[in-house]
Write a sequence for this structure.
């Protein structure tokens, strides 16, 4: 079976790369599932959303929080580029929860709130 | 004897200076490697975003965005000067500032009004000492830049670019930074950042761009990509400057250590000479004294 070559990169480093059979990303207009053989797309990511990657070797699905960024699909290569990106497994849930509280009490910054919630979701906790 | 003590003191102080510069040199050496790794780590993102942007612009002829347009009516021109926070790095900052000065002179000749934007403590103190105006300054991250800092700088610059002269905006943005070529060579570079010039040349020859669909629209993608691209360019320039700073510091500290060691050699020789002279004098005094005693005793 064909697989996708996925790269999840932030300006500072490459967060995750490898083969995958499914990538789910969220654009401004809704979720988009990407499987091998997808048409070339250049899409804008929703700032503060979760990208899910199912590795081709059948391992645990990888979730990551992404901030402002975009993704491009071309010939079974998927690149997700985000200015802020964190792997769910690297997120401290307690800290993330606290951060969400801080953001909520600070009030009206919706992007910061979405990011904080996405961070929790990526870590596999309720938000 | 007083001279002997003085020389010993001097040797001691030069030795401790050498120790400090040697430590600085080694710290800088290890940081160059880290800075180079940071440059390499930022490359995938920079490459991808350039490719995406090229794809966008080449597929959509006549695409329009304020960041791509010349603004000839705005005479104010931003000059972003990237220097270091700390000294001890030889001519690194002086070179950047000199280049910035000549760029600003050239801009004035073209009838534009340069507005400095400063990164790094050294540029800030240089401007403050001369009582010169600058629009904005940032510091505290020159030796290890993070993307959030580049984002702050980029945001401010794009914001000002989108304003007109009357609102305190600018019509062009230039950057003066130092490019890291190798451990021994770093070059000061002057680049025009905005308006962006995206040419087909940025793409490797022979590469065919896929016919992208845009989600949600090409315009929305461009709106996001352009500021991100600018921030990524600034980040790249900061990383290059940081690597250059460490390389410059390593070289400056190495020559300082070498000089100190030479000086220790000179002082040690002088000290030996003085000591030998003192011993010789003492011997001749003793011999002279003994002779005088013998002469007087012989009578």
């Amino acid at each position: 079976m064909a697989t996708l070559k996925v790269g999840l990169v932030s300006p500072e480093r490459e967060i995750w790369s490898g083969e995958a059979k499914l990538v789910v990303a969220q654009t401004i207009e809704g979720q988009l599932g990407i499987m091998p053989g997808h048409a070339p797309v250049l899409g804008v990511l929703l700032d503060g959303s979760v990208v899910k990657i199912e590795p081709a070797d059948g391992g645990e699905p990888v979730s990551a929080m992404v901030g402002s960024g975009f993704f491009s699909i071309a010939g079974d290569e998927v690149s997700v580029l985000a200015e802020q990106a964190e792997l769910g497994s690297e997120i401290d849930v307690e800290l993330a929860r606290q951060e969400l509280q801080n953001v909520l009490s600070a009030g009206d910054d919706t992007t910061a709130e979405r990011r904080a919630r996405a961070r929790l979701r990526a870590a596999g906790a309720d938000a | 004897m007083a001279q002997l003590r003085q020389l010993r003191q001097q040797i001691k102080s030069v030795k401790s200076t050498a120790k400090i510069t040697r430590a600085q040199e080694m710290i800088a050496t290890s940081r160059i490697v880290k800075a180079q790794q940071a440059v390499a780590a930022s490359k995938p993102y920079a490459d991808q975003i350039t490719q995406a942007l090229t794809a966008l612009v080449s597929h959509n002829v006549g695409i329009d965005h304020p960041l791509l347009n010349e603004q000839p009516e705005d005479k104010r021109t931003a000059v972003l000067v990237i220097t270091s926070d700390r000294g001890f790095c030889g001519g690194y900052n002086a070179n950047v500032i000199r280049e910035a000065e000549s760029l600003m002179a050239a801009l004035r000749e073209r009838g534009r009004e340069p507005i400095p934007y400063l990164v790094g403590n050294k540029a800030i103190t240089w401007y403050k000492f001369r009582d010169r105006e600058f629009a904005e300054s940032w510091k505290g991250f020159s030796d290890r830049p993070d993307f959030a800092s580049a984002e702050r700088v980029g945001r401010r610059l794009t914001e000002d670019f989108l304003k007109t002269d009357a609102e305190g905006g600018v019509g062009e943005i230039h950057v003066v930074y130092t490019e890291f070529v190798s451990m021994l060579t770093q070059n000061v570079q002057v680049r025009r950042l905005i308006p962006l010039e995206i040419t087909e040349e940025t793409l490797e020859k022979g590469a065919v761009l896929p016919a992208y669909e845009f989600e949600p629209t090409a315009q929305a993608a461009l709106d996001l990509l352009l500021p991100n691209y600018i921030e990524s360019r600034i980040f790249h320039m900061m990383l290059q400057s940081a690597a250059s700073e460490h390389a410059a510091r390593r070289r400056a500290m190495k020559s300082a250590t070498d000089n100190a060691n030479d000086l220790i050699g000179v002082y040690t020789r002088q000290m030996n000479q003085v000591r030998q002279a003192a011993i010789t004098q003492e011997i001749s005094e003793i011999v002279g004294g003994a002779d005088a005693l013998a002469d007087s005793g012989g009578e």
